[in-house]
Amino acid sequence: MMTTWSKRTKAVHAGTRRSQYGEVSEAIFMTQGFVYDTAEDAEARFVALGDDEFIYARYGNPTVAMFEERIAALEGAEDAFATASGMAAVNGALMSMLRAGDHVVSAKALFGSCLYILEEILTRYGVEVTFVDGCDLAAWESAIRPDTKAVFFESVSNPTLEVVDIKAVAGLAHAVGAKVVIDNVFATPVFSDAIAQGADVVVYSATKHIDGQGRALGGVILSTKEFIRGTLEPYMKHTGGSMSPFTAWLMVKGLETLELRVRAQADAALKIATALEADGNLTNVIYPGLASHAQNALAQAQMGSGSTVLSIDAGSKDAAFALLNKLEIFTISNNLGDAKSISTHPATTTHQRLSDEVKADLGITPGLIRLSIGLEDADDLLGDLRAAIAG
After folding, report:
1. Of 5, 105, 178, 289, which alpha carbon lies 20 to 30 A from 327's?
2. What are the domain boundaries of the chain?
3. Quick one: angle between helices 62-75 and 245-279, nearest 10?
4. Residue 372 · residue 381 · CB < 8 Å
5. Which helix (H) or strand (E) holds 90?
6. CATH code, 258-390
7. For residue range 245-273, what is the model confidence (pLDDT) as tens digits?
8. How far is the C-alpha of 385 from the C-alpha of 333, rounded, in Å?
């Protein structure tokens, strides 16, 4: 039975829907609408959908459903809803459950667009948001109130790679009936056990490791069937943030190789981080898989890995730019989780809109560089970095 399969097997077979032709590779159902035999059938379908019935691609599609069922099986969730982008997933997960007057507690170390949703959009519509140090359990305990509706955090923060204790924060949130919403992109579905650890809603940018080859934007929200179909789906299908069938097909194919790719990338990241730290030529090397990382024990307990991204500090903006410009294999871009290794200067790109004071508070220094490790040979990547550091 599928429930006993490993993640690697589920990533290849879960949720498969075959047409009357019995194809081996999953089909792309490139249609926005569906045909009914009679007017009575159309009426009945709009009243209640049966198994494998669809109305409109904004509401659901067979290819999209395959991706949703496969990623849900992989994550250990009851259900999933695929979205047009990772940020559509974050926005949908929060906006669908919150109303004016609700209270949210969030970690302050977040991706810039996540911060925008919490600071600008939710507060615009009357939601109160309290920000805390995600690694400080006392701060969470102090901020969570009896009327708190949700807590939100990145399980591993972007780009400073702080690890938040899911079980501990979930315990505090659930004590007052608040939902735990986690952006889990750095953990990846391979290393994630977030739902078993207490998450109510898990969000991924499928653009990252799930596609893993820089081809398409996508996102996914995972939770109980009650939340996905009762709370989230009405919001998403009426506001138009659904995933396209072709993108869903790319994501389905990405899932087939996800574990092989991510484990190879994480192994390379650990090797590179260990070597760079030992070299001693950088101001700082940040990687949850290193013993020197403040939450190394938590990362190992929570994920069993440091995952695929590390950050280094060259000491200054000028030194960081000089290093970036000397790299030959690493591509300067702002994505992560790609087959190609990518280098990013967060202070001037992904987090550039933040004030200098906020950047300093979050640890986003002028010399910080985020490195997403790809599928190239680890020794080649290390050689590229060492040459760039040496100048």
Report:
1. 289
2. 2-254, 258-390
3. 40
4. no
5. helix 86-95
6. 3.90.1150.10
7. 999 999 999 999 999 999 999 999 999 99
8. 16
Q: How far apart are CA 114 and CA 120, in angstroms?
A: 10
Could you give the CA distance from residue 178 to residue 183 in angstroms, rounded to a whole number? Answer: 16
Q: 3-class DSSP state for residue 241?
A: coil
pLDDT of residue 1 exceeding 70: no
Q: Which amino acid is at 48?
A: A
2-254 CATH: 3.40.640.10
Cβ partners under 8 Å of residue 119, min gap 6: 129
Q: How far apart are CA 96 and CA 232, in angstroms?
A: 5
**Assigned token pair, 47:** 């009243």
Give the orientation angle of helix 378-390 with respect to helix 245-279, to 10 degrees: 60
Which amino acid, residue 167? Answer: K
Half-sphere exposure of 146 (CA within 13 A, CB side): 0
What is the reported pLDDT for 306? 97
Is 0.90 topped by the overall pTM?
yes
